[in-house]
Amino acid sequence: MKVTEHIERANGKPLFSVEILPPLKGQDVNATFKTLDPLVELNPAFIDVTYHRQEYIYKQKENGLLKRYQVRKRPGTVAICAAIQNHYKIDAIPHLICGGFTKEDTEDALIDLNFLGIDNLLVLRGDPIKSEKSFVPEVGGHAHASELIEQITALNTGNYLDDELQESHAMDFCIGVAGYPEKHFESPNLAMDLYYLKKKVELGADYIVTQMFFDNQKYFDFVKKCREMDINIPIIPGIKPLTTFNQLTSIPQNFYLDLPEALAMEVLKSKDKERIKEIGIEWCIQQCKELIDFGVPGLHFYTMSNSINTKKIAEAVY
């Protein structure tokens, strides 16, 4: 079922959904099931699975020369989505990115996903890998998420790269995109960021999932600006609790967002690890309750494959 259909059928009740990482190479699918089993009890509407590009590493050979190897630490996004749908009968959503794919690779991946009965996608440009100073598109691929959306919407009308195909099958993917209440870190300002978001909607995006935020006013303002620009598709807030002292610096550094002063000061006052976790979870629970009162279509939790904290929060608000 499409995400938009889930929202319509909920009749105003906010959906519960989660994002997980694929297991590390060497782990089996049971690592994913172990993460999801406690959350499935809460009936998530959908589960999305991140995609991780190949990284380049250098290893010294016996003759002293360095050899470059391509390594993907978390392979298996598509297979994990298929396993989730088969095992739990819950819609799974793969991240589909620009980096590392030609247009032909993308078309083949979409054909596979269609054969597997996967109805939804979360379409992203993708981040630069460690060896890149900035994002470098694949030769013959897409440089921007908007270009990737165009290819998907073309397939949704039966238009493949090979225009000589006869009686080609039209796909029917529901397309999700990312939104940034505090703007994408590469964007010069929020207005420009919203301009490109509107372009994605005009090209066929069906719903938005936001980057995590810790100040609800950022989300409220973001939604207001979107509606003023006639961006009228569902905007699902992305949620993650702060649970360790180190996240005071790692979250702003890695996700380019601000932490509210009240939350940061409470964490700074405490020296106890468990108390810091409690502070973060309590903050997140109140944040979720306020978002539900606002009328959000759902709450999407970034679990980072740790289900315990997500379950505590969801049980407190649903």
TrEMBL record:
GO terms for molecular function: FAD binding; methylenetetrahydrofolate reductase (NADH) activity. One of its GO terms (cellular component) is cytosol. The gene is metF. The lineage of its organism: Bacteria, Pseudomonadati, Bacteroidota, Flavobacteriia, Flavobacteriales. It comes from Empedobacter falsenii. It catalyses: (6S)-5-methyl-5,6,7,8-tetrahydrofolate + NAD(+) = (6R)-5,10-methylene-5,6,7,8-tetrahydrofolate + NADH + H(+). Pathway: Amino-acid biosynthesis; L-methionine biosynthesis via de novo pathway; One-carbon metabolism; tetrahydrofolate interconversion. Belongs to the methylenetetrahydrofolate reductase family. Its cofactor is FAD. One of its GO terms (biological process) is tetrahydrofolate interconversion. This is Methylenetetrahydrofolate reductase. Keywords: Amino-acid biosynthesis, FAD, Flavoprotein, Methionine biosynthesis, NAD, Oxidoreductase.
